[in-house]
């Protein structure tokens, strides 16, 4: 788990200054997370501290609409809309 923690902490650091994205209302029918492509990353993130899950998930963009955050990942990581 420390590898995942280091990875997502580095991701959070790189994303500093980027605005948070509004969450998609529902996961896309072809969601890259729930469809399996990024599922392992989302599951690893879901096991990390809440503040890290929130920070990363609110900037993890949807592959269909990059102006919104991925709802599939948000659901796995228990991130709620603001």
Q: Could you characterize the architecture of this molecule?
A:
The chain is mainly alpha-helical. The chain has one domain. Helices cover 43% and strands 0% of the residues. It has four helices and no strands. The mean pLDDT is 94.
What descriptors fit this protein?
4 helices; mainly alpha; 82 residues
Distance linking N and C termini: 28 Å
Beta-strand content bin: under 5%
Global structural class: mainly alpha
- Average pLDDT, rounded to a whole number, is 94
Using DSSP, what is the number of strands?
0
SSE layout:
Blueprint: H1 2-14, H2 39-46, H3 50-57, H4 71-76
Provide a concise account of the structure shown.
By secondary structure, the protein is mostly helical.
